[in-house]
């Protein structure tokens, strides 16, 4: 369990750290709109900043989303399975698809990043010549984080198969709909506990 929580905390930390890219994107985009349309003086860096920040955010959100069990799945049938069956299905999918794909991402991403660093690759779409090798370095870094989170998910599946229930995930931010649902469940449990008396 310590390994699960360590990896979950690591994914949570990196995900939240890179979530600040949204603020940078918003401020940079707003500034660009202001100077382009009101001052007629567009910047040379806004496009590059937006795709580099968005790329970093998109990449680093992967391990965080996996740690929150937030990736999209077709769960029309899956959610009807007992938890042990769900865990077995998840474990097979992680071992056959996720972990090999992430290993390929680490290997090829490392080659890609090394090549980019070798000639200090600059953006070909920018008159400013903005360096993009740091962004390409994130590819193998994210691969390692995804591999760690993937092994944590396999460990979580083994736990569920053994004990019959999923181990608890770290508490974090929730969608409003989920938070309301949890609040209603707690209120319903309180009403049942007091015999329905107000």
From TrEMBL:
The keyword Metal-binding does not apply. Keywords: Cell inner membrane, Cell membrane, Membrane, Transmembrane, Transmembrane helix, Transport. The chain crosses the membrane at residues 17-39, 45-66, 87-108, 128-148. It is found in: Cell inner membrane. Signal peptide: none annotated. It comes from the Bacteria. Residues 27-156 form the Tripartite ATP-independent periplasmic transporters DctQ component domain. This is TRAP transporter small permease protein.
């Amino acid at each position: 369990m310590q390994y699960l929580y360590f990896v979950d905390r690591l994914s949570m930390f990196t995900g939240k750290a890179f979530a600040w890219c949204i603020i940078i994107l918003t401020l940079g985009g707003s500034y660009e709109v202001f100077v382009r349309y009101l001052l007629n003086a567009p910047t040379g860096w806004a496009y590059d900043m937006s795709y580099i920040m968005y790329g970093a955010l998109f990449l680093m959100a992967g391990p965080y989303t996996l740690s929150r069990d937030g990736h999209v799945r077709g769960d029309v049938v899956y959610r009807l399975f007992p938890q042990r069956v769900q865990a077995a299905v998840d474990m097979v999918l992680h071992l056959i698809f996720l972990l090999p794909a992430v290993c390929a991402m680490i290997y090829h991403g490392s080659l890609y990043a090394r090549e980019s660093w070798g000639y200090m690759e600059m953006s070909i779409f920018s008159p400013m010549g903005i360096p993009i090798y740091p962004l390409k370095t994130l590819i193998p870094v994210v691969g390692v984080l995804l591999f760690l989170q993937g092994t944590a998910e396999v460990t979580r599946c083994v736990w569920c198969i053994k004990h019959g229930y999923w181990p608890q995930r770290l508490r974090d931010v929730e969608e409003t709909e989920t938070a309301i649902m949890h609040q209603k469940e707690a209120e319903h449990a309180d009403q049942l506990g007091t015999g329905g008396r107000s």
